[in-house]
Amino acid sequence: MALDKAPSWQPGLQPEFDQPYMQALKQFLQAEKAAHKTIYPHSSHWFHALEATPLDQVKVVILGQDPYHQPGQAHGLCFSVQPGVKVPPSLVNIYKELATDLDVTPVAHGFLESWARQGVLLLNTVLTVEQGNAGAHQGQGWERFTDRVIQLVNEQCDHVVFMLWGSHAQKKGAGIDQHKHLVLKAPHPSPLAAYRGFFGCRHFSHANQWLTEQGRTPIDWQLPTVPEMETNVPSAS
Questions:
Q1: Through-space distance between the first and last CA atoms of the chain, rounded to whole angstroms
Q2: Which DSSP string do the residues of 132-196 spell out, in sequence order?
Q3: Rounded distance, CA 137 to CA 84, Å?
Q4: Which stretches are annotated as coiled coil (predicted)?
Q5: Is the pTM here over 0.90, yes or no?
Q6: For residue 121, what are the β-bridge partners?
Q7: 101 tagged catalytic
């Protein structure tokens, strides 16, 4: 495990890899592979959220829980799936809210790379999962690592919008400095919760308005009709 492709994050995060909890996590993942368990995403994508969105370019943080656990879906960005994969239900609801909030046209894919490249940190709380076993890697150390990611954004970045959807994300972001950053809260966009207040939250227009007020370039939430980058790596590790 390394951050070779995420140099902006290295000063704050590389020391974590020497900590006992990360050594234990590494041993856990090695043992899972030795037991011939399929892990998503591929190891080359474990830190893709950090690689796609440098620390000094973060404008928006969206928190997910753990990666999708079916073949071909996960590639290291929360809520995002690889090109050619059916758009998951929660992302369908995100698209619906974008359409009503900003008149953004829903696309037929779920590849959110263009958001990440604009400064939207699409961070899962846990960065790996076992195939077909949601939450299998929770409590193994990833949560502490991603707490540090959020801490770095909170401390080193200015004027960031945190979109905290659901109680899990809201608990994770409890320590964010709200004098410095904008914290937006709503229910999770999953089909079970979206109608309880995610629909109509208008987080995307609120985010862009606030970024503009802070002198920052707003996010273009309109995804390209055709995914702009193919991911030519195995889907599992």
A1: 13
A2: TBTTTTTTSSHHHHHHHHHHHHHHH-SS-EEEEEHHHHHHHTTT--TTTSEEEEE--SSTTTGGG
A3: 26
A4: none
A5: yes
A6: 61
A7: no
Query: Which amino acid is residue 232, in one-letter code?
Result: N
Collapsing DSSP to helix, strand or coil, 77 comes out as: coil
CA dist 164 and 185 (Å) reads 5
d(CA 38, CA 40): 7
Catalytic site residue from 18, 66, 147, 220: 66
**How far is residue 167 from each of residues 76, 151, 171, 185, 193, measured CA to CA in Å?**
22, 19, 6, 9, 11
Domain ranges, ordered by start, for the chain: 9-214
Select from 3.20.20.70, 3.40.470.10, 3.40.50.2300, 3.10.450.50 the CATH code of 9-214: 3.40.470.10
